[in-house]
Amino acid sequence: MSPAEAARTLDAAKALHSGRAHLRLVGSIDNPDADGPGARLQAARRDQELSIHQVAAALRLKAEQVAAIESMQFQKLPGLGYALGYVRAYGELLGLVDCDGLVSEFRDAWEPVQRRRESEIATKPSKFVAPAGAVVALALLAWLIVWASLHAVKPQPVDVVAPPDEKIKAWAEAQQNGPVQATADVQPLSTLKALQDVRVTLRGEDGALVTDRILRKDESISTDGLGRWFVSSPFGGVLEASGYGQTALVGEAGKKVVNWRVPDFEAIAIAKSKAEAEAAAALAAAEAAKLAAQQAKDQPAVTQTKAPNGVNLGNTTITPADPANTGPVTATSAPAKVVGPVTQ
To answer: Whole-number mean pLDDT of the chain?
Structure first.
């Protein structure tokens, strides 16, 4: 693809995705809104060069939920009990030592938000408008009667918020007493590796900027989640793209690289595997045919020779009896002579 074609492809992708909220999933700016204990998780993930997609796959969560944990966006997460479980599992995945402190910080940040939300729900005015004042008065009176009867039977505490994380506390205690779980080994499907120090500009398939920095020699970055990504660099032939067991040098040596598009490694790997399977099947068929021909060639032939006065089987001659006589037929082995009919 020429630089002009690559530029047109990027412009079309930007126009297509310009109205959509998009969260970058790989690179140094994958979640710029990280805050509080979520920022610690993000920093540890970046140190291990893991993408949000990889963490989500390992924890069996959505990528948006992992991003919400890092940015402390509580409204995008389920109840506090589940969210704290996700935080602990995330910390264990990254091998953090103080997972208990991380969960405690997350709970301390969540609880004020939860109390404020419950207070807003309780004080939110009703939007119901009765058609007549009498109906409103009767409904209010009925509600007061029911409320008073219920509270007279079973008094309820006032302004007390029940602890929302009892289940997660029990789960955490059980985990502390149980066996230590191994940290998941998450390997990227595709990477970009520097063969020498070089500046790299990496963009996703939609044209969004992923990273623009200097890669040191032998340093690799994951490109999972970017689709058919683009890379630009002042020098060609010093970057190596790999994926699905295939590798390719980025650009041409000695020339500037502008929006070089990575090959479809997955399609190449599938085609290569299919060709290898067909070649192996053809070779096996040829070997089988060769073996059958050799076996047929090595099998000894069976021959029979008929003599005028008898049948010769190896060294044994059998002389047929004279029809005029009824005497027995005598069979002898060489070098014995053939015996004729017995005379009465």
So the answer is: 74
pLDDT at residue 274 in the model: 92
Q: Please report where in the chains the tokens 């918020």 appear, as a residue.
A: 161
- Distance CA(15)–CA(12), nearest Å, equals 5
Sheet bearing 220-222, strands edge to edge: 220-222, 190-194, 239-243, 246-249
H or E element in which residue 59 lies: helix 52-59
Which helix or strand (DSSP H or E) is residue 198 part of? strand 198-203
- Read off the tokens for 4: 């002009």
Hunting for tokens 């002009």 — which residue is that? 4
Coil, strand or helix: which one is 53?
A: helix
Spatial contact of 41 and 90, defined as CB atoms under 8 Å apart: yes
**Mean pLDDT of the region 167-177:** 68
Statement: residue 15 has pLDDT above 90: no
C-alpha 212: how far from chain center? 27
| DSSP-derived secondary structure letter, 204 | -
Tokens at 20, concatenated: 């959509």
pLDDT average, residue stretch 224-250: 88
Cβ atoms of 99 and 110 closer than 8 Å: no
